[in-house]
Design brief:
By secondary structure, this protein is of the alpha/beta class. It has a single domain, classed as Phosphoglycerate mutase-like (Rossmann fold), CATH 3.40.50. The chain is built from eight helices and six strands, in the order E-H-H-E-H-E-H-H-H-E-H-E-H-E. It has a six-stranded mixed beta sheet with strand order 3-2-4-1-5-6. About 4% of the residues have low confidence.
Length: 215
């Protein structure tokens, strides 16, 4: 089964480079306009786009999204008219005291400095523990992949958060990788392969991982 991971399009907070986790923002109007513009360009001439955005996404038989508005809205744009299943376990991490703030606002905060020095492994103050966050994301992805394989689906798309994608691929991608190897921009992501025979045998690995093509 082909597995597609897509990070949601930008929100106002993303555009301001803020930590946006539990805040349930809509997509920015600029992001929506940009998406429609580039989709129109792609439909008119698939070989010529502005080179800055993904204007085409792989088709998917099953769509799963974080229930946060930014993910559902992105899924509706990319896969119009298709059923979207919302999965609470795929929500972004709760950034606690860092929520809604930018690096510039936090750079002199001793707690933030300590968090950076830890490589992001410390729990967010008044927020969510990293291990708890990563575990729930992986379990949510695994549960839906098992369901897709059981139902003989050929493709499944997850429209989620950057942190969710990093958590899932850090645990499930074949080979050795760092958590931050899987950072991706808004509207971008990865494709992977979940081999049905392996997953049915309990070998839950994602193989042949590639970045989504930028159009």
């Amino acid at each position: 089964m082909e597995v597609i991971f897509i990070r949601h399009l930008p929100t106002p907070g993303n555009e301001k480079k803020q930590y946006i986790g539990r805040t349930d923002e809509d997509l920015s109007s600029g992001a929506i306009t940009f998406f429609h513009k580039n989709r129109e360009m792609y439909l008119k001439n698939p070989k010529e786009t502005d080179g800055e955005s993904i204007s085409f996404y792989p088709r998917a038989e099953m769509i799963v999204a974080s229930p946060m508005k930014r993910c559902v809205q992105t899924a509706e744009l990319i896969y119009p008219g298709q059923k979207i299943a919302a999965e609470p376990e795929l929500k972004e991490c709760d950034f606690g005291r860092f929520e809604g703030k930018s690096y510039e606002e936090l750079k002199d905060d001793p707690v933030y400095i300590a968090w950076l020095k830890s490589g992001g492994t410390l729990a967010f103050p008044e927020g969510e523990d990293q291990e708890t966050f990563r575990r729930r994301c992986v379990e949510g992805i695994r549960r839906w992949l098992r369901k897709g394989i059981e139902e003989k689906k050929k493709s499944m798309a997850f429209v989620v958060h950057g942190g969710t994608i990093m958590a899932a691929l850090h645990r499930l991608a074949e080979g050795e990788h760092d958590f931050y190897d899987w950072q991706t921009g808004n509207g971008r992501g990865f494709t992977a392969l979940a081999a049905e025979d392996e997953w049915q045998a309990g070998v839950e690995i994602l193989r042949e991982i590639r970045e989504l093509p930028v159009r």
